[in-house]
Every structure is written in C-alpha cells, then in structure tokens.
C-alpha cells in the first residue's frame, strides 16, 4: 500500500547525473569537515577540548548534500552531532574549533561547546543535546516562515534513535497537521549510540512514520553527496512551493564511535570496513577523477583544506578563554 | 473605569497586544472557537482568525516546542497550557530548551514565549487540576515567573510580559479567575516585572503571598486588625526575579515574617524566600520566619479545604511569631 508521493521501501542506490562543477565544491566541504573532525579528535585526546565530542566522520555526505539544496536564508536545526551541519551552513572552521576549545571567539562565545552551535547570521538554530527535543522547535520555525510568507524552508536533522521519543512524534504530528514547510531528515546511521536498529525499532524504515501524518516521504542511500542534494532538493521544493513537509530517511554510517569515549565494541571490524569501502569522500573523489578532474587540481584543493584547518586550530589555540556567562541567562 | 475579573483582564491584554502586534499569536488546546477551557481566549478566534488563534492537538511538548521555534524566528507566541498540571509533558521543552536559548546561543537568540497557565486549587479539581508547580520553574535559570493576584495586575503584567524578550511562565489563579473583580483601566498600561506591591500596611508582622493566597493573607490581616494585630501584606506578583528590596524593607520594618503559598511545603518557594531574608536581615528579625503552605501530599479532592491555607491558619501562625 502506498501513499501518493511515496518513494519509500526499497533502498535506492541508483547513481545520479554528476558534473565536476556541482561535485567539486561539495567534495571540498566534506573534506574540510573530516579534517576538522580529525583535528578535534586530536585536540580532545590532548585534553584541549572538554566534555563530549561526537564526530560525524563517515556521514558527511548527508549534511553537505542536504544543505547544498538550500537557499542561504533557509533554516537548519541539527542534533548534538552538529559540526558538519554548521560548516555546511557556512560557519567557519575557526569559529567552530574556537567553540570546541571554549574560547570567547567561538560561535556562542565558548558557552556551549560541541553540541550547542548556533549562528543567527546563518539561520542555524542549534545543535541540540536533547534527542528529539528540537523537532517541534523546527516545526515552530517552519510555522513562522509560513505565517510570514517569506518562502523559507527549515531542515531538521535527527537520528533514527530520536524516532521513538515524544518530541519527534509531536513535532511530526504538528508539521503534518499544519502543513509546515519543513524537511525532516533522519540521518539513519544504524546505531542509537550502541544499540542496533533491530533492538530499538519494530519497523526499521523510519520514513514509514510519514504515512500516519499524510506526509510525503523518501528514503535512499546517503553515501552519494550529489544524490542527497538532488533528492533533498525535491523535498525542499515541495516545502517551498506547497508548504508540505517531507520525512526523508538517509541511510548512512558513522566510522567512529558514538562519542570519543565509545570504542564501538558492539559492531565487528568487518562491518566497519565494509562501510568504509563506501566512504562518501572516497566515492566523490573517484567520481571527480572519472569525470575528468585533474589530479593536480584535487591536490591543490586538498592542500587548501589542510591549510584552512591548520589555521583554524591555531586560531582556536590562541584565542582568549571564555570568562563570563551571567549576561546570557535573562535580560533584566 | 470599567471593572473586570481576571479572565476578562487576561483576554483584554491578549486582544490589545494582538491588535497592536501582528507577531503575537495564541496557541493551545481548545483556544480557538471554544475560547479556552476557562474562556480566556473567548472571542479572539472571531476577531483574529484561525491563523493567529491556533487550536492544537493534545501535545504539550509540541505546543511549547513549536512556540519556541516561532519565537526564535521573531514571532511572539503566547501558548496556553490548559491546566498547570498539564505542563509536565512540556517540562523538557521548558527547562532544557526554552529557558536555555539565550544562554546557549551566546545571547544571539532570546526566546520571547509567554506561557499562560491556570494554577492552584479551590475548585475541587483534585490532584490533576489543582497543583501549584511554581517552584520547579523558579528553580530553572533563564525563566521569569509571574503570578498576579488580581485583574489590574494580571492585565498590566501580561502586557509587560508580551513586550519583553525573555521566556515567562505566567501563572493565573484559577480559583479567583472570576471571583476577583476590580477596576481595570481601558487600553494599554504595563506594570514592571520584578516589582512586589505592599497591598496593606502594618507594623507587627509581614505576610508574603502571591497568586490565590493574597486574598487569604488580606483576610487574615483584617481579622488580625480586629484583635489588635497589625499585619503588612506584600503581594510578590513576580516570583522570578523576586523583589528582594520590597521584601526586606517590609521585614526590617515589622521584624517578623510569615510566607503563605498553597504549593507543598518542602522545597516550596517559601524556603527560598526565608533563606534570602535571613541571609540579609538576620539582625532585624524578632522571631523565626514561618510558613503556611499546602502539605507534602498529592492535592486532595475531598479535603481541599484542609489542604489550602486559610485566614485562620495564617493568623494563627502570625501569632506564633508574635509570641516567640
């Protein structure tokens, strides 16, 4: 049984049309995110970053591809694994690494750290540390853009682990009921922290939840950044033109543990290696070469990324430490 | 000057602000055509339409979460939680999301959501329609908590809340929604958030009260007067940030103090007030500060009259401090 606009069920892994012009900037973004995550991991292991650190390594194609389908004034609401989304939305590696280091020059002045990036300038409504709690907030942002008629779309990211919690259910119900211009993107990395899907979900196809709310849905493989961009663009267009929400499930995999403290013992080396063969970065690079990109150009791009991240680390290390927080509680 | 009850004053404030500011919307369960369970939004749907007076499903986390998103985007949502007792499904949204936005966005995103909700007992509502959960929210940094006791304050404070940028929990005393009637100016006026009012002057003992307990405190003061006891009654009006200056001035004058609230005793707001006073005015106190509160039980249905503080209990406690 299928609803209209239903493109769910079988996991689509068909290739999509590609050009160097479209792919190369996305490859650069994914590479910058990976290098930044690696730099963060190093700083964390040196004790320069405290608290928790959730790396997005392996999943870069989802946030980069999806955000590439947006206008600059569209909104993004992300999870605690928010570094990639923030970079893709235009925030600088400098401001992000400084935030991780707890520096005044960070995105939120060093008050939040890893899970809590915000940028009003970029319409980035947060990194959210409470799983699923941000889904109704995204519905509210979409409500406001519909109310104002400004034609903006909100992208809301979450993992499959959020799909069982109340905030997700209520946000979905309201987005469906009120026909809000929001694209709800499940980054299904197959593990809710350390629990595999088959132990947490009765139905492993999260996009099916759309059916209960009369909402369009889509589901596909998330290794291919261009496919993510093109498919999310369809949902974004639907939201912008008709105010209709879409629930999209993008199947992906994280190469590292849930956080830095997770050695990932609940999955086999073989499984991880199998997924690494489908690395979205490797895939994009091979495709660029296939399309005729010159190795020299790619090397130049890679050197440029390396320099960008090295500069950002230097900036974070030399910035002043955050030393106030009281002004930001309430304004009396 | 017209007279209004609290419900009418709240409705008047909402109507004024919705006419003045297109960004203001109300949302909640049955707030539309039905006009809200206590009729606070009655007539607003007809005037402002379904886009601005928004019926929601039963989904408190969704209601508050959506209001947060609207506010981040520049709207001024005024969600209604039908009973204060129903606020708990939204507790996560209020405590973890709403209250922390200004802070966790480094000051980039204030979150002007005014949550209206009726609180307190006195209507035989039993344990799910009578609670006073203010202490949980006063204890949450980033929220303002406002609790008017009369129509004049309700209108002036609600208008003030809708015109500032921090999240507010606006608690309305349901027991006296209609019983409390008084003169309310037509049109706009605002009262300063964070200012208490000395509603009755006295010299022997200060009574600190708010919301539905102010009228009880005043009744106790009247009874006391007949017996030669001069009681000063302070209506706190805003619970967070509370007006420590007015409180201290009164306590320093009288040397004695009793706090009245209907919420349970342990870790109730009275405990905070007493701590704050003794930290600053120990030398002025003639007796320990005492409390008259609800009990540490679920809110009772049949024995509601025993649970709720009344004038005799309050006056008896005042006498205890006088006889110390």
Question: Features of this protein?
Answer:
heterodimer, A: 332 residues, alpha/beta, Rossmann fold, two-stranded antiparallel sheet, 10 helices, 8 strands, 41% helix, globular, disordered N terminus, B: 324 residues, 2 domains, five-stranded mixed beta sheet, four-stranded mixed beta sheet, 12 helices
Give a brief rundown of this model.
Chain A has 332 residues and is of the alpha/beta class.
Overall description:
The complex is a heterodimer of chains A (332) and B (324). Chain A has helices spanning 20-45, 60-67, 83-88, 93-100, 135-148, 166-177, 225-242, 269-276, 280-291, 295-318; strands spanning 6-12, 75-77, 154-159, 182-188, 191-192, 195-196, 216-221, 246-251. Chain A has 332 residues and is an alpha/beta fold. Chain A has one domain: Rossmann fold, CATH 3.40.50. In chain A, the strands form 2 sheets. A 6-stranded parallel β-sheet of chain A has the order 1-7-8-4-3-2, sandwiched between helices. Chain A has a two-stranded antiparallel sheet with strand order 5-6. In chain B, strand 2 (24-28), helix 2 (44-48) and strand 3 (53-55) form a beta-alpha-beta unit. Chain B is globular and about 60 Å long. Chain B starts with a strand and ends with a helix. The mean pLDDT of chain B is 97. The A-B interface holds A 75, 106-109, 111-112, 116, 118-120, 125-126, 128-130, 133-145, 147-148, 154, 166-167, 170-171, 173-174, 177, 325, 327-332 and B 25, 51, 56-57, 59, 61-75, 77, 89, 92-93, 96-97, 102-110, 141-144, 164-166, 194, 241.
Outline the secondary-structure elements.
The complex is a heterodimer of chains A (332) and B (324).
Chain A: E1 6-12, H1 20-45, H2 60-67, E2 75-77, H3 83-88, H4 93-100, H5 135-148, E3 154-159, H6 166-177, E4 182-188, E5 191-192, E6 195-196, E7 216-221, H7 225-242, E8 246-251, H8 269-276, H9 280-291, H10 295-318
Parallel strand pairs in A: 1-7, 2-3, 3-4, 4-8, 7-8
Antiparallel strand pairs in A: 5-6
Helix pairs in contact in A: 1-2, 1-9, 1-10, 2-7, 4-10, 5-6
Chain B: E1 3-5, H1 6-20, E2 24-28, H2 44-48, E3 53-55, H3 60-72, E4 76-80, H4 91-97, H5 101-104, E5 114-119, H6 134-138, E6 144-146, H7 151-162, E7 168-173, E8 181-183, E9 197-200, E10 205-209, H8 214-226, E11 231-235, E12 238-240, H9 244-254, E13 257-260, H10 269-281, E14 290-292, H11 304-307, H12 311-322
Parallel strand pairs in B: 2-3, 2-4, 5-7, 6-7, 10-11, 10-13, 13-14
Antiparallel strand pairs in B: 1-8, 6-12, 9-11
